[in-house]
Recover the amino acids of this structure.
């Protein structure tokens, strides 16, 4: 089905169904003695915006390159819809990739850059002109046909790269850190632009990034990768509210992590003897870390779990005021929305009670943090 048909069919809504568009089964990639991807299995539902997120070297680009056909798995199988595409070269897979470096042809006009793939497939005349024009309109570059890439801004060049990849109506679009070369403001604009484009087209996008905010802004589902494996897969809300590992809790946003001992009954005793209620710890015993997000903690009040502390630092950071509070269980970060009355009322040296709901207290395995030498 052509992209323009998909636009009509989706009528502005994501065309998400449960049928997977991409399936990886036990995929491993080894480069000499480096295991870049280690037995990854995942399914990407049709019409979804899926992000592979993780720190440098975790294997996300290698995973994307294997889906695109630029690398062969050492082991495992890759399916596109129900078709086993393992071993097929990129041009025999119905996917297109947008790279960080745009990879536009510098000597060709914007029109010819976008028309390139269609011409190779024998499309010409009015059909070619119409499809290129519609695609340039879609990326808001109508009227730029005759320019050369160097006459466009970075964001405009990246939109040409998107148009060039989408004009072939791929089943899946792969995005390999496509916004990495842009400054922060443009990056944020492009995040929303690409998300809107995906909703409009309803085709599956797979996006690689090391930027958690970018992944959370754009994707319906995120796979957090660490050392070649998937640490956790879920919606941005799931991963943020219910991280299953300390790595995920730290990688997505700020977490206060307090070491303690779980008693099996949904309570955790901290090193200073404070007992916290954490329904998420029910059935767990032994050494754990409880986590609380900084914006879930109140200064004052009693929301079920409380800790006494002293304000060590206060910083005004625009949307919120950030407090660092020293407690016997460790230093805790608290964000208070500046829209709240009295957000900046506390000052260093003030004694405060911190409180938060047991329901927002998550629990993960305790991990030794690396300490600087
Ligand atoms: P980044 O964000 O820095 O691109 P990444 O998460 O995308 O990181 P990969 O590029 O997939 O990570 O690399 C995973 C591991 O595989 C790294 O240790 C990397 O050095 C190694 N690696 C990747 N490509 C090759 C290659 N062609 N030859 C040898 N080792 C490689």
């Amino acid at each position: 089905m052509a992209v323009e048909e998909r636009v009509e069919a989706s009528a502005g809504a994501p065309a998400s169904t449960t049928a997977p568009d991409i399936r990886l089964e036990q995929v491993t990639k080894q480069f000499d003695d480096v295991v870049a991807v280690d037995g990854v299995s995942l399914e990407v539902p049709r019409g979804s915006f899926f992000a592979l997120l993780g720190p440098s070297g975790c294997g996300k680009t290698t995973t994307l390159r294997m889906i695109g056909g630029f690398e062969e798995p050492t082991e495992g199988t890759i399916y596109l819809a129900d078709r086993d595409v393992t071993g097929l070269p990129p041009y025999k897979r119905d996917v297109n990739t947008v790279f960080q470096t745009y990879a536009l042809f510098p000597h060709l006009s914007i029109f010819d850059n976008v028309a390139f793939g269609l011409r190779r497939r024998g499309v010409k005349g009015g059909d070619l002109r119409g499809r290129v024009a519609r695609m340039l309109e879609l990326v808001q570059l109508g009227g730029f046909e005759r320019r050369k890439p160097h006459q466009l801004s970075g964001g405009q060049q990246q939109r040409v790269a998107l148009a060039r990849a989408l004009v072939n109506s791929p089943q899946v679009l792969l995005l390999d850190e496509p916004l990495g070369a842009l400054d922060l403001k443009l990056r944020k604009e492009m995040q929303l632009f690409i998300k809107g484009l995906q909703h409009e087209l309803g085709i599956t996008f797979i996006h690689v990034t090391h930027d958690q905010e970018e992944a959370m802004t754009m994707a319906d589902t995120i796979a957090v990768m660490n050392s070649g494996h998937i640490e956790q897969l879920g919606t941005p809300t799931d991963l943020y509210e219910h991280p299953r590992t300390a790595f995920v809790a730290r990688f997505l946003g700020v977490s206060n992590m307090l070491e303690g001992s779980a008693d099996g009954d949904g309570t955790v005793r901290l090193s200073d003897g404070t007992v916290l209620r954490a329904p998420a710890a029910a059935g767990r015993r032994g050494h754990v870390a409880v986590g609380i997000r900084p914006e879930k903690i109140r200064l004052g009040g009693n929301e079920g779990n409380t800790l006494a502390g002293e304000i060590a630092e206060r910083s005004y950071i625009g949307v919120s005021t950030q407090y660092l509070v020293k407690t016997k269980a460790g230093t805790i970060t608290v964000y208070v929305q500046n829209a709240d009355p009295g957000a900046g009322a506390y000052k260093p040296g003030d004694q405060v009670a911190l409180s938060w709901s047991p329901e927002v207290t998550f629990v993960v395995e305790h991990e030794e943090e690396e300490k600087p030498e």
